[in-house]
């Protein structure tokens, strides 16, 4: 039998699962979110009750015994939604509690390498999104940016855009995961989102979209068209909400 | 004229400037304001030719009083002309910025009425953006050669980066091809910007709240192949610009023949590979601790087009190899062909906790294609490679590796990838555009 830990999909749930592996002295084959779980008859299931106290203990232990960097790393690995992320995180933390703050220097150790690989993917997508999300000004003066991302990175954008677009109300909408990063000119927060009906554009919105498309066209060197290179930098899966790619 | 037509005309003329970086400044947003600068730079889109858009790169005007034979904006050329107003420009920038289309503005211009008149309009535009619109995003401004020091100084208080394009790498070439442009008209504003930057850094050291002056530094652009300077002369010039003028970047741009003038060389292809080698050497100067004399000398004044400058250097200094990865210091690691800054840092970090072998290097993401001829791990060479004391043998191996790579993956070395900013003769325009 293979032991699977199944948690509710939250980061706290995942940390609770980590806590339980220590408390129960168990070594689960996988730690998976309930959304990603497919049952079969070889699997022995243990459902994790998300517990704030337990997750905080793990949270604090990571900072104290390993590093803040390590906490950020497992957070990013979690956001990758990789099928093995739970397992990788457990292995990384077990090693980390032994190795201490030097854990991230073990670049060639698989337990560290697996996590770093996921972190790199998240960092890349996050950096790309900083550039390619597009706000549309709505008739109610909210700047609205819908996106569909490969990883769950939209939640990492709040800080950057709140500092930058400090004087505008905005919403970044992760359409696939159906939540939004909201900013109200004083603080940003994450909340689920529910849009009914059509969003009306501000009267000037299409005007600026046209100007931007014209600029984009004029900045292109036409004898050097190389769509493959373009798609290398800016993969097609992100084009759906790009004003200039329509 | 409609705004959209102005954008078409004035973006079209600006797109050949190579510089697009939005990095190097950490300007913060102000209370009630909009925008900040990201020190690491952000790309916002990629045009179908594969070049990144970071800044709104545009000319203020393409009306020009000069009539330079080689320039598309020359007064006698019959092309559509346009000019922004400071209001239009500020409005356009801020509305693009709010929608996250751009990282900021890169404003350049042809010379309308006089250098001072043009510079005044540029200053007015950036001042409006900073003071009226409260825009704190990135601004790169071209200093117009010949404009008064007062105007250039004023501009520097509002922008993140300034540049004065040298274009032609020697006084003789300037006289020949750009007679209105003297060495002094270029070095004077550069020197002024430099000394004000240094003065400002001292002020900011004492008073953190002192207003900034060109915090992203200054840059310039050199045209390669329009005149007969060799690589040594060009690289020496860059080196002294980095050291003497504290420049952040020197951009190189292969010359493309566009006009038939007896003083211009008639070449069929732009020297793109040469441009690429100069960029590689430039990196070696700035990040790898090399100096020009190590890379080139009077007997060898030009780079080998087949081999990158670092490999070339290594072959001439085989007595310093092989390098033991577990022992060599950081700066020696940087001198190994195929090992870059990131790789060297990762090696230094990883060997703190373990002794590295070749498999470990792979996991660190280090490409062994070139490096394997120059390194040992735990005293051993990679697989069946033995130390080759003859530069010719190693060179052959390196060149062979390149060929194999090309065959396996033709996309990998596409010319365009190496030279994303090139243009073709069909685009009847010179890089020497309207910058006088």
In short:
The complex is a heterodimer of chains A (246) and B (436). Chain A has 246 residues and is an alpha/beta fold. Chain A contains eight helices and eight strands.
What does this structure look like?
The complex is a heterodimer of chains A (246) and B (436). In chain A, 39% of the residues are buried. In chain A, strands 4-5-6-7-8 form a 5-stranded mixed β-sheet. A 3-stranded parallel β-sheet of chain A has the order 2-1-3. Chain A is elongated. Chain A has 2 domains: 2-124, no CATH class; 133-245, no CATH class. Chain A is built from 8 helices and 8 strands. The model of chain A has no long low-confidence stretch (mean pLDDT 94). Chain A is 43% helix and 15% strand. With 436 residues, chain B is of the alpha/beta class. In chain B, strands 3-4-5-6-7-8 form a 6-stranded parallel β-sheet. In chain B, strands 1-2 form a two-stranded antiparallel ribbon. Chain B has a two-stranded parallel sheet with strand order 9-10. The radius of gyration of chain B is 24 Å and the shape is globular. At the A-B interface, helix 5, strand 4, helix 6, helix 7 and helix 8 of A face helix 1, strand 1, strand 2, strand 3 and helix 2 of B.
């Amino acid at each position: 039998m293979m032991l699977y830990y199944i948690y509710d999909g939250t980061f706290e749930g995942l940390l609770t699962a980590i806590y339980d592996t220590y408390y129960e002295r168990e070594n689960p084959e996988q730690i998976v979110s309930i959304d990603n779980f497919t049952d079969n008859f070889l699997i022995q299931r243990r459902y994790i009750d998300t517990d704030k106290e337990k997750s905080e203990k793990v949270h604090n232990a990571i900072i104290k015994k390993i590093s803040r960097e390590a906490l950020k790393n497992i957070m990013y690995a979690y956001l990758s939604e990789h099928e093995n992320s739970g397992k990788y995180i457990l292995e990384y933390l077990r090693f980390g509690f032994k190795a201490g703050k030097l854990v991230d220097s073990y670049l060639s150790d698989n337990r560290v390498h697996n996590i770093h690989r996921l972190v790199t993917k998240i960092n890349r997508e996050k950096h790309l999104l900083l550039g390619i999300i597009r706000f549309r000004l709505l008739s109610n003066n909210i700047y609205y940016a819908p996106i569909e991302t490969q990883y769950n990175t939209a939640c990492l954008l709040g800080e950057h855009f709140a500092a930058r677009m400090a004087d505008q109300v905005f919403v970044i909408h992760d359409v696939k995961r159906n939540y939004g990063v909201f900013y109200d000119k004083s603080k940003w927060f994450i909340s689920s989102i529910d849009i009914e009906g059509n969003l009306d554009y501000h009267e000037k919105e299409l005007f600026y979209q046209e100007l931007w498309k014209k600029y984009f066209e004029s900045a292109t060197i036409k004898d050097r068209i190389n769509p493959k290179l373009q798609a290398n930098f800016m993969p097609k899966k992100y084009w759906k909400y790009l004003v200039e790619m329509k | 004229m409609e705004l959209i037509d102005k954008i078409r005309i004035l973006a079209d003329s600006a797109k050949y400037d190579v510089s697009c970086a939005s990095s190097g400044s950490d300007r913060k947003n102000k209370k009630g304001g909009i925008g900040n600068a990201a020190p690491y730079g952000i790309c916002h889109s990629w045009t179908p030719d594969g070049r990144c858009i970071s800044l709104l790169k545009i000319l203020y005007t393409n009306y020009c009083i000069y009539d330079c034979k080689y320039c598309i904006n020359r007064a006698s050329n019959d092309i559509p002309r346009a000019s922004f107003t400071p209001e239009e420009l500020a409005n356009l920038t801020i509305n693009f910025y709010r929608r996250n289309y751009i990282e900021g503005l890169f404003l350049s211009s042809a010379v309308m009425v006089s250098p001072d008149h043009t510079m005044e309009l540029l200053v007015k535009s950036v001042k409006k953006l900073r003071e009226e619109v409260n825009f704190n995003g990135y601004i790169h401004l071209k200093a117009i050669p010949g404009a008064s020091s007062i105007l250039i100084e004023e501009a520097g208080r509002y922008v993140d980066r300034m540049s004065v394009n040298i274009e032609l790498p020697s006084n003789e070439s300037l006289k020949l091809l750009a007679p209105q442009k003297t060495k002094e008209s270029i070095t004077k504003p550069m020197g002024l910007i430099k000394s004000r930057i240094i003065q400002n850094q001292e002020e900011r050291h004492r008073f953190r709240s002192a207003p900034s002056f060109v915090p992203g530094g200054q840059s310039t652009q050199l045209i390669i192949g329009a005149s007969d300077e060799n690589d040594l002369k060009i690289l020496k010039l860059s080196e002294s610009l980095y050291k003497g003028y504290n420049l952040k970047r020197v951009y190189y741009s292969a010359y493309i023949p566009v006009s038939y003038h007896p003083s211009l060389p008639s070449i069929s292809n732009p020297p793109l590979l040469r441009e690429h080698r100069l960029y590689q050497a430039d990196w070696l100067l700035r990040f790898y601790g090399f100096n020009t004399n190590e890379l080139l000398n009077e007997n060898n004044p030009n780079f080998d087009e087949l081999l990158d400058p670092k490999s070339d250097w290594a072959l001439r200094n085989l007595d310093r190899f092989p390098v033991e990865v577990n022992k060599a210091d950081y700066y020696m690691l940087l001198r190994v062909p195929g090992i870059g800054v990131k790789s060297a840092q990762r090696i230094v970090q990883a060997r703190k906790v373990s002794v590295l072998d070749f498999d470990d290097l792979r996991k660190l993401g280090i490409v062994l294609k070139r490096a394997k001829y120059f390194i040992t791990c735990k005293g051993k060479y990679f697989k069946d490679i033995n130390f080759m004391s003859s530069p010719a043998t190693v060179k052959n191996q390196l060149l062979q590796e390149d060929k194999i790579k090309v065959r396996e993956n033709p996309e990998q070395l596409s010319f365009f990838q190496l030279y994303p900013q090139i243009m073709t003769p069909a685009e009847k325009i010179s890089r020497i555009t309207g910058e006088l």
